[in-house]
Amino acid sequence: MMKIWSMTDVGLVRKDNQDAYDARVCTASGHTVCVVCDGMGGAAGGQLASHIAVTTFMEELEKVLTPEMTPEQLREASSYAASLANKAIREAAKASEACRNMGTTLVSAVSYNDGAVITNVGDSRAYHITQSGITRVTKDHSLVESMVDRGDITAEEARRHPNRNLITRALGPDSTVACDGYICPMEAGDYLMLCTDGLVDTVTDQEMLFEVIHGGDPDNCLSRLLAISKGQGAPDNVTAVLLQKQ
Questions:
Q1: N or C: fewer beta carbons within 10 Å in the chain?
Q2: DSSP string for residues in the chain
Q3: End-to-end CA distance of the chain
Q4: Distance between CA atoms of residues 153 and 148, nearest Å
Q5: Does residue 72 register a pLDDT over 90?
Q6: What is the tens place of the pLDDT at every residue in 80-114?
Q7: pLDDT at 44 over 90
Q8: pLDDT at position 212, please?
Q9: CA-CA distance, 156 to 161, in Å (whole number)?
Q10: 112-151, pLDDT tens digit by residue?
Q11: Can you tell me the distance from the alpha carbon of 234 to that of 231, in angstroms, rounded to the nearest whole number?
């Protein structure tokens, strides 16, 4: 079982919020499931793509979840649900010229007894946060991540790079999509943070770690992180879901 906190905010520059999320405990299977998406393709297209992705992913995953599933089975089920979300976005895009190029990132988590299974496409992230530190679980599918991997730029330079928002993989653009899957063991009291790049680009990993572990009441943690983001101008939508293993 996981305790859940969540927030989304339009930020200080954008007129529309193209992020979407959902987080709940599935009553039939007992799994805690959450998903965060960051839409792209114009205001209308981005909002629609992220909404379709969240709704389809949650609905399709809930259909196949059972209490006895192994982490590997949960990973396969999450990838399957993401592929159906990809199909739904593409079908909706065919129906509207304005939404033809829409797409979205996706990062999700499904709990199991000893932790969570993470799935991601794009540059929305998952972080594992404990008393001993913060670890990024996911790998961005982005141009700057590729540059960091090649040694062309540092991770800190990537945070300020003018092309940091160019992603190389998303739901929507292609008929098939490859998801990355991770099994993240967790101890009681550990946290998992899912967030869009609107938070990542304005709040450092160390600031996340401090606010989650040392900042005070966890019920106000996401509000504190949003305040830091807005203090840095919050040029993008900011969305996060925080989970704590009980």
A1: C
A2: -EEEEEEEE--SS-SS--EEEEEEE-TTT--EEEEEEEEESHHHHHHHHHHHHHHHHHHHHHHH--TT--HHHHHHHHHHHHHHHHHHHHHHHHT-GGGTT-EE-EEEEEEETTEEEEEEESS-EEEEEETTEEEE-S---BHHHHHHHHTSS-HHHHHH-TTTT-BS--BSSSSS-PPEEEEEE--TT-EEEEE-HHHHTTS-HHHHHIIIIISS-GGGHHHHHHHHHHHTT--S-EEEEEEEE-
A3: 6
A4: 5
A5: yes
A6: 999 999 999 999 999 988 888 999 999 999 999 99
A7: no
A8: 98
A9: 9
A10: 999 999 999 999 999 999 999 999 999 999 988 889 889 9
A11: 7
Contact 20, 105 (CB under 8 A): no
What is the per-residue burial (b if ≥16 Cβ within 10 Å, else e) of 172-192?
Answer: bbeeebebbbbbbebeeebbb
What residue type is assigned to position 81 of the chain? A
- Whether the pLDDT of residue 43 is over 80: the answer is no
Q: Which amino acid is at 140?
A: D
Euclidean distance between CA atoms 76 and 83, whole angstroms: 11
Domains of the chain are: 2-139+169-245 (3.60.40.10)
C-alpha to C-alpha distance for 137 and 45, rounded to whole angstroms: 28
- Mind listing the pLDDT tens digit for each residue in 153-178? 888 888 888 888 789 999 999 999 99
Asked whether the beta carbons of 19 and 198 are under 8 A apart, the reply is: yes
CB atoms under 10 Å from CB of 79, counted, come to 17
